[in-house]
Hints:
Elements (H helix, E strand, L loop, with lengths): L5 H8 L3 H7 L2 H15 L2 H18 L9 H20 L6 H5 L3 E4 L2 E4 L6 H5 L4 H11 L4 H8 L3 H22 L1
Antiparallel strand pairs: 1-2
Helix pairs in contact: 1-2, 3-4, 3-5, 3-8, 4-5, 8-10, 9-10
Amino acid sequence: xxxxxxxxxxxxxxxxxxxxxxxxxxxxxxxxxxxxxxxxxxxxxxxxxxxxxxxxxxxxxxxxxxxxxxxxxxxxxxxxxxxxxxxxxxxxxxxxxxxxxxxxxxxxxxxxxxxxxxxxxxxxxxxxxxxxxxxxxxxxxxxxxxxxxxxxxxxxxxxxxxxxxxxxxxxxxxxxx
Length: 177
């Protein structure tokens, strides 16, 4: 029986703690952590988001209406936990420098100077969800192959998406700068 099978989830909903723990094995927690880290940019915050998600899922699993939508339900909880932590930390006030580590961003093999007062997250907010995930993972030092595996998309798609995303960021920063 697979951990996301209807019967497996049904047992967890009935209070089987062992089955519930099996659902959140190391592999699934790592997947959740990678998502949280891409959103929050901080190891401890990502770990907190994952742990809070598991706890909330455990406390509210009886509220799950459709066993087949368990994984989507967990993703929604995790997404909300990340948003809560993001709001608490007021991360939208971070500068390019705080996110990229210096005053320069590598865009299409050229370095452009970025004004410190431009909010990186306000620019990233204009991107589509998949683009946000890709650029945040890239900012965190993941290479194309790792991003491809994490997001389950073709490595060439990651490469071309990064080029397009960098162009968008460059254009937006020029307009705002």
